[in-house]
Structures are given as structure tokens and as C-alpha cells.
Write a structure and sequence with these properties.
Strand 7 and strand 8 form a beta hairpin. 16% of the residues lie in helices and 33% in strands. A 5-stranded parallel sheet has the order 14-13-12-20-19, covered by helices on one side. Strands 1, 2, 5 and 6 form a 4-stranded antiparallel sheet that branches. Strands 4-3-7-8 form a 4-stranded antiparallel sheet, with no helix packed on it. Helix 3 runs parallel beside helix 4 and helix 8 packs parallel to helix 9. It is globular and about 90 Å long. The protein is α+β, with helices and mostly antiparallel strands and 689 residues long.
Length: 689
């Protein structure tokens, strides 16, 4: 629900105040601002008013005008008539990771006979957004002249549409922690405060209308919807005008999608475009989130090819369907089983028993639809690749491995292909970023903000400087999302049997990679390695010129690949006819991991716990996907929490230092503790005070 605002003023009212900025690109050396507002005489007699304004602390402008009784007039200030609205060396707003997020403040006042009658204030950012179609018809966004790969997630509001600023802010911080740069909002657009937070944190937003609803009833094909009547058009136009007016000054908003699964017809499109044009909408208007077109907006440049249910990691590397080419507006491998802590909070013992025992069972916490009501596809893959679960805990630990590898592969494939000369990837929206309720699918973080394999797989894939393995051609690639180039890097890949026996080891030195999402192939793993077990591990390490590790990535792979049945692809997945054999992970020896931790209190009521995790002291077998969980004295997870890294794999003699930052109050007065667990690591808890 949104607040109802009642305003009280004098004879003259100011409404619809906003700023249109024109940034010089690519130099960013200057910007011209245009300030507009509607000035309304609310009295029954003529009046003379002076409208004056400021932008920041430097620009000031004013104008006196006469208004007839009840007259409304738009007043416009430009750099041509108000020199202060020409900015030299403007403070440019950037998405997080590309620069800062400075905001300017517009202040307007209307005075009558020396008395202030009304005021208006608006925050805005100076930035330039373009989103043309590339040579392959995909939409390619650029900010301030620099191309960027959209890496986002679908936003779900609270199930009862309750507004909670702290909860929303926590989720936006999670998006940044994951290396995402965008949130897509499909209908149910959040209140103004959401977009103000996105501006502050540098999270791009893609708002738009919702699918499968009345607003696209005239064009929604076989999906349910109500045809529009003559009365619906002015309502739709007023709705578009209202959304445009409240969103246009937010620099985080980089488009509006006037369609979702379908694009509007000519009449509906004109209704929306007229409202957007009248509101001085500053960023690209996109016809649909699917591969559709509208008469004026043209082709959407997006695809909505799924998948929405489980597919193997190698799926993402194919340049077809949902694979890493173009702009995929909603896509993921479907189910995401939460941590055991969350499952026990949200499900009854009987439901938990059914969860791991019965793939055909209807899952209340998944979906009421016939397509997504069960976990049958997901469970078949889990058992086929990792072996049948032996209990709830085994089911959940296998799920975390499966979700880590598929989510990591999804983001890595799109990252690798972003600078391809042919059919590059330009954007992906993970479906979905979060869930508005206690769910078993479509979420990188669960309702309680706990973090599992999906979360840390995405976080790993979206590192600023990242070394990764390609499932399609076995190349070891370095991707650099920083603006500046990187040189003097060394990439090393080592293959191990599951018992830790080393079978292959190669190093490439002098690796260089340009910035802004560029990639460099360091080396390629051979198609076959003698004596390698069916299930094996690949450890990738990237070091800088000083020998410091800047990226580390561990994969569990098989000499037998997943086989996809592309010919029988449907709208929500591509069937898998043969699974990779990862069952060898089940035979890994259980190895102990030790940890020490300490906590310091920081500013703003936050605490930071530093954890040093040490791998096995002897032998060869590593500890795979070692997880550190911050818990209170009762063993309950302390949430939200932002880890520097987590779910690390450690070989004997190796160690990793991790930090966790969180609100001190979320400890509920108890001392912090760290719970260590992993694929083949006995669970242990250590003090962290």
C-alpha cells in the first residue's frame, strides 16, 4: 500500500516539478538542465507570482508571471535563459561498481506579494542512458557512454504488499553483495522510497507493467485477460502518467516496459507513449519483456525463452533458447531449495518428510500451477547426478551443490559471452531475485534472507575480476568487470580425483584483460586427461603480479556430460536425457575443518566477525563447499549478513579468511558463534565473541 499525501498551500500551487538533464557523452564534461513545473492559481482572482529555484548550491533562477483565476501554466527554465543550469564538470551518477551515486537537489518556491505560497523539492541524478538494438536485434544498454551487461534479478514485493524500508534496504544491499546491477519490477511497483534507495545504492531498475493481467487483455494471446472497454483507455493513460511523473527523476530507472509477455497494440501503445512523452520521460521505452514488437516502440530487443525449471550448467553456454546470447528478461533453473534452517522454519515435519521422499508430491510452497506444482524434474536431476537422497539433510546438501553450480554457470556464461563479436549476451534477469513468501523456487535469497548455494554461486560468478571454467569448450577465461584493464595475471588450473590425487596442472602467465566486461582466454583444459576419475574436481586460481590471489573458483565435473534434448524444448525447460555422473562426490572422505573467529563492533550499530577457516591438516582430500554460518547462542542464523566470501573449498594446508558484517541488534543480545559445515565436513560451531 502507498501513503496518501495531503498538501496544503497558498493561492499558488507548484506541481509536477522535475528536471530533464542532457549530459555530454562521452566526454561527461558538461550537462544542461531543464527545470519544469506546473504553476496553478487556486484562487478566483488573478495573481502575480514569482517562481524561484535552486539546483544544489550553485544554480539559482527565477521568473515572475501573471495567472488568471484558476489558470495553470507550465514554467520552464533552461540553460539558455538561466546560465546556472549549464553545469561544467557535473557530478555524474553511475551504477554501483562503475562510479559514485551523487544526487542533485532541486528546490522551487512560488511567492505571492513576498509570501511563500508553495514549495517543491526533487532529487535527481545526471546520467545518460541509451539502449539501442545491436546487430543481432538484442537490446544493449549503455550508461554515460559505457556499455554494460545487465546482471539482474526479478523483484518480488511482500506477499501482502506491506512496505518495510529496512527489509527492502537489506535486499538491495544483498543485490550489490551478489554483484548484480539491476532489479526488474513487473507490476506491483514499489513506493517512491524504493527508488530513492535504488538511487542511493546505485542499483538500476527496470519497472514495467505486469503480464497476464487486464492491462494487456487485448493482446495477451491464449493467456487469460479481460478485453478493454472505452473507459479503460483514459485510466491506463492516467496510470502511465502517474508512474512516469514519480519515476522520471530517479537515475536508477533506466527504462519502462510497456509490455511484458506481450506488446501493446497500436492504440494501447499510443495511450502509453502519449503519457510518457507529456511527462518528459527521459529513458528508453521497451515494447515488451518478450521478443515482441509495437508499432512505434519497435522490436523489444528482449527474449523470454526461459528456462523456468531445472537445466544443467552446460545449458547456459549454448547460444539458443535461454542460453547466453541477447537479453533474457526472466530466466533461471527454477527450484531453489532453501537452507535447512529456513526449511524448518517454514514447513511442518510431515512436509519436510515429503520434500525429500516424494518428487511427485504437490508442493504448497512451490506453485499451484500444473507446470510447477511438483519438484519432479529437479528431483530427478538431483538423484541422477548426485545419487538418491538418503534423508532430509542429504537432500538439502545436494540441493546446495546443484544450485551453486547452475546459478554460477548462468551468470558466468552471460559474462563470458558479453563481448563476443557475434550474438553477444547483453542482459539477464535471474527469475527471481527474491521471494515474497516462503518458497521452494525462483529465489537467490529466501524470505528470511538466508543464503545458500544459489546465493554464493551468483556471488562467485559476479566477482569484479573473475576466473571461470567454460562447460562448452573447457576454456579457462578471465572476465574483468572493472573499468581499468588488468595485466600481469597468472591463471592456474588443477584437476583432482575426488580423493585429492592431482591429475593435471597447467599455468598461464602474463594474462592481460581489458576492462568494462572484457574477457581473455588464459588456457584450455584437454578433452581427456589420463587416469582421471569419472567425477573430478577442478581448481582455478588467478593471481596478480605480486602473487596475491585475486580470484579462486572450484568446480565439480564429470567425464560424462549432461545430454540435452533440444528438439523437445518447451516454454519452461529443455529436457535432459542423460545426466553427468557426479555420484563420486559421495565417496569423498569426511575431513575436519577448523576455524577461529573474533568480532569487532563498528559504526552505526554494526558488527564484523572475522573467521579463519583451515582445511584438513593431513591427507589429500579437500573440504568441498565449506559453509560458514553466523548464528546466535541458540543456533539461529543471524540475518541479514554480508560475507566477503563463503562456501569455499579448501585443500589440506589451505586456509581462508572470511568476514561477516551485520546489525549487532540481530544477535538478540547473545554472543556470536560460527557454525562450520560442508559437503564432506562434520558440522562444528566455534565462539566468535
Amino acid at each position: 500500500m502507498r501513503d496518501v499525501l495531503v498538501r496544503r498551500g497558498g493561492r499558488v500551487a507548484l506541481r509536477d516539478a522535475h528536471v530533464v538533464s542532457r549530459l555530454a557523452v562521452p566526454s561527461l564534461a558538461s550537462a544542461d538542465l531543464t527545470v519544469k513545473a506546473r504553476v496553478r492559481n487556486d484562487s478566483s482572482t488573478a495573481v502575480t507570482t514569482t517562481v524561484s529555484g535552486t539546483v544544489g548550491s550553485t544554480a539559482a533562477f527565477r521568473r515572475t508571471l501573471s495567472l488568471r483565476a484558476h489558470e495553470t501554466r507550465t514554467v520552464t527554465f533552461t540553460a539558455a535563459d538561466s546560465p546556472g543550469l549549464h553545469l561544467d564538470a557535473p557530478k555524474v551518477w553511475w551504477p554501483a561498481g562503475m562510479g559514485g551515486q551523487p544526487l542533485y537537489r532541486l528546490g522551487l518556491s512560488a511567492t505571492v506579494a513576498g509570501t511563500v505560497s508553495d514549495t517543491a523539492h526533487e532529487d535527481f541524478g545526471v546520467r545518460d542512458v541509451k539502449a539501442p538494438l545491436d546487430a543481432d536485434g538484442a537490446r544493449q544498454y549503455s550508461i554515460n557512454g559505457r556499455k554494460l551487461l545487465i546482471r539482474g534479478g526479478g523483484w518480488s514485493p511482500d506477499e501482502f504488499l506491506r512496505w518495510d524500508r529496512t527489509y527492502v534496504e537489506d535486499r538491495l544491499k544483498y543485490a550489490l553483495d551478489l554483484g548484480l546491477n539491476t532489479i526488474r519490477l513487473e507490476g506491483h511497483l514499489e513506493p517512491d522510497e524504493f527508488f530513492a534507495l535504488a538511487d542511493r545504492y546505485g542499483v538500476l531498475t527496470l519497472p514495467g507493467w505486469e503480464c497476464c493481467d487486464k492491462w494487456e487483455g487485448n493482446v495477451n494471446g491464449d493467456e487469460p485477460g479481460d478485453p478493454w472497454t472505452a473507459a479503460d483507455y483514459p485510466i491506463a493513460k492516467a496510470s502511465m502518467a502517474a508512474e512516469a511523473a514519480r519515476l522520471r527523476d530517479h537515475p536508477s530507472v533506466v527504462s519502462f516496459l510497456i509490455g511484458s509477455d506481450f506488446a501493446p497494440d497500436a492504440t494501447i501503445e499510443k495511450t502509453y507513449l502519449d503519457a510518457l512523452r507529456a511527462a518528459d520521460w527521459p529513458t528508453p521505452v521497451v515494447a515488451a519483456a518478450s521478443d515482441n514488437s509495437a508499432p512505434v516502440s519497435g522490436r523489444s530487443g528482449m527474449k523470454m525463452t526461459g528456462p523456468y525449471d531445472w537445466v544443467p550448467p552446460g545449458y547456459w553456454y549454448a547460444k539458443r533458447e535461454g542460453g547466453a546470447t541477447g537479453f533474457n528478461s526472466e530466466t533461471s533453473a527454477g527450484p531453489d531449495i532453501p537452507t535447512l534452517d529456513t526449511l524448518r522454519r517454514m514447513m511442518s515435519p510431515a512436509e519436510l518428510d515429503t520434500l525429500w521422499k516424494d518428487p511427485d508430491a504437490r508442493q504448497y510452497h512451490r506453485s499451484p500451477s500444473a507446470t510447477f506444482g511438483t519438484l519432479k524434474i529437479y528431483d530427478a536431476a538431483l538423484a541422477g547426478r548426485y545419487g538418491p537422497p538418503t534423508g532430509l539433510a542429504d537432500y538439502v546438501r545436494k540441493a546446495q551443490l546443484a544450485q551453486y553450480e547452475t546459478v554460477r554457470a548462468q551468470f558466468e556464461a552471460y559474462g563470458r559471452n558479453a563481448t563476443d563479436p557475434s550474438k553477444p549476451s547483453t542482459g539477464l534477469i535471474y527469475w527471481m531475485f527474491n521471494s515474497g513468501w516462503t518458497s521452494l523456487h525462483w529465489q537467490l535469497t529466501d524470505r528470511y534472507l538466508d543464503q545458500g548455494g544459489a546465493y554464493f554461486g551468483a556471488k562467485k560468478a559476479n566477482e569484479p575480476l573473475h576466473v571461470q571454467y567454460s562447460y562448452d569448450n573447457r576454456s579457462v577465461v578471465v572476465v574483468n568487470r572493472r573499468h581499468t584493464a588488468a595485466a600481469g595475471l597468472t591463471a592456474r588450473v588443477t584437476l583432482f580425483d575426488t580423493d585429492g590425487t592431482r591429475k593435471y596442472d597447467r599455468t598461464a602467465s602474463g594474462v592481460e584483460v581489458a576492462g568494462d566486461g572484457a574477457r581473455s582466454t588464459a588456457l584450455t583444459v584437454p578433452a581427456s586427461v589420463g587416469g582421471l576419475s569419472t567425477t573430478y574436481l577442478a581448481r582455478l586460481v588467478l593471481t596478480d603480479s605480486r602473487g596475491r590471489t585475486v580470484s579462486r573458483n572450484v568446480y565439480w565435473l564429470s567425464t560424462r556430460a549432461d545430454t540435452l534434448d533440444w528438439a523437445h524444448t518447451d516454454w519452461y525447460h529443455t529436457p535432459t536425457t542423460a545426466y553427468a555422473d557426479l555420484r563420486g562426490l559421495g565417496s569423498m572422505a569426511r575431513v575436519p575443518v577448523s576455524a577461529t573467529a573474533s568480532t569487532t563492533t563498528g559504526p552505526g550499530g554494526t558488527s564484523t566477525t572475522t573467521v579463519t577457516v583451515r582445511g584438513p591438516r593431513a591427507g589429500r582430500t579437500p573440504s568441498l563447499l565449506t559453509d560458514a554460518h553466523l548464528v546466535d547462542a541458540k543456533g539461529r542464523p543471524v540475518l541479514p549478513v554480508r560475507w566477503s566470501d563463503n562456501q569455499v573449498s579448501l585443500w589440506p594446508g589451505e586456509s581462508a579468511t572470511l568476514t561477516a558484517t551485520y546489525r549487532t541488534a540481530d544477535l538478540r543480545g547473545s554472543a556470536p558463534r560460527i557454525r562450520i559445515s560442508g559437503w564432506n565436513t562434520p558440522e562444528t560451531t566455534v565462539p566468535a565473541a
